[in-house]
Amino acid sequence: MSKQHILIFGAAGFMGTYLADALLAQGYAVTASDISAAGERYYAGRGVPFIKLDITDRAAFAAIADTPFDAVIHLAATQPANVSAQTYAAQNYIDVNVGGTLNILEFCRTRGIARLVYASSHRNTQGLWARNRAITEDEGRAIKYDGEYAMFSISESAAQDCVLHYVAQYGLNGIIFRLPPVYGYGPHTEIFKDGVPIKTGFQIFIDNAKAGKPIELWGDSSKGRDIIYIKDVIDAYIKALERPTVNGLFNITSGTRLSLREEAQAIIDVFAPEGASIAMTERPEKQNNIDNFLYDIGKAKRELGWSPRYAFKDMLRDFIREEETKAFGHLIENRRKMLNEQSDH
């Protein structure tokens, strides 16, 4: 039996690039789509069909060839890590995350594409984190209506509801992945935080460990997050494609809470020069940006047959291998270019 033909919207990003690579390696046919000219050049170099398309332009979908796609994977989104203070506009979140999702759903409906997998952030559960236990899929949402993630969470929640509407109304086989921070070799060096470009704490820890410098732990270092490695997320997508009758929302996370202290120690263990002794200094008086959350992944295990394969140290070691191959080095260059362009506005 031949493999499926998959159309990926948002294929030029971090997750889309890794996903396309994995699907091609497993014999799937892939068509990539993105608004990015850099993505168009990357996929042309790989001989992968590419559709340059703005998902907010409904008329543009009519130009897509009448290819019998088996499934669509929707990764395209506007998110705070990519938005500077100068370019922020609430309308952009609605136009891309809601309007763009609706356009993709209509494309699936009118073309008779039965399967959609939609990537969504976990941020619309922020009000549940204080429960300090693993959050399940049936606990609903609890949006925080202020801060940089507010419009992002509002728009993604509406997009999720659009997917569920098409499942109920038109019989679409739709899956929604609830994703926490996704780590891996790629654009994790710098992001926008509250609209300002910063180097991520993850990258600062790695840089200090490589240089043999001390690492400072700000705030409560026992607080931790449920993060996931990019290759475990990709495995979940492949499991979803292999189970075309499964629908609904799934937590795709590690199912474990990694504290700030554990994260720093693991980075020291993996990245520090041999024989180096690197001190970790606790600075509880200084504020950090670490949130405290954990998700239950029992549903994904039962219905998708999926479990994460990479513990955090395994992820770091694989991160080094990916960095050495430089296969996805263009992702970092693209992000730096984006940061510079937006900061110049």
| Overall radius of gyration | 20 Å
Which CATH class?
A: Alpha Beta
The strands making up the biggest β-sheet line up spatially as: 3-2-1-4-5-6-13
- The CATH topology is Rossmann fold
Global shape: globular
Considering the protein shown, what is the CATH homologous superfamily? NAD(P)-binding Rossmann-like Domain
Short overview:
With 345 residues, the chain is α/β, with parallel strands linked by helices.
Can you describe this structure?
It is a single chain. The chain is of the alpha/beta class and 345 residues long. The chain has one domain (5-343): Rossmann fold. Helices cover 40% and strands 17% of the residues. The chain has helices at 14-25, 37-46, 90-111, 150-170, 201-211, 230-242, 260-271, 298-304, 312-325, 329-343, and strands at residues 5-9, 29-34, 50-52, 71-74, 115-121, 173-179, 182-183, 190-193, 196-199, 215-218, 224-225, 228-229, 248-251, 258-259, 280-283. Strands 3-2-1-4-5-6-13 form a 7-stranded parallel beta sheet, sandwiched between helices. The chain has a two-stranded parallel sheet with strand order 7-12. The chain has a two-stranded antiparallel ribbon with strand order 8-9. Helix 1 links the parallel strand 1 and strand 2. Helix 3 runs parallel beside helix 4, helix 5 runs parallel beside helix 7 and helix 7 crosses helix 9. The radius of gyration is 20 Å and the shape is globular. The termini are far apart.
Keywords for this entry:
345 residues, alpha/beta, Rossmann fold, seven-stranded parallel sheet, 10 helices, 15 strands, 17% strand
Secondary-structure blueprint:
Blueprint (H helix, E strand, L loop, with lengths): L4 E5 L4 H12 L3 E6 L2 H10 L3 E3 L18 E4 L15 H22 L3 E7 L28 H21 L2 E7 L2 E2 L6 E4 L2 E4 L1 H11 L3 E4 L5 E2 L2 E2 H13 L5 E4 L6 E2 H12 L8 E4 L14 H7 L7 H14 L3 H15 L2
Parallel strand pairs: 1-2, 1-4, 2-3, 4-5, 5-6, 6-13, 7-12, 10-15
Antiparallel strand pairs: 8-9, 11-14
Helix pairs in contact: 1-6, 3-4, 5-7, 7-9
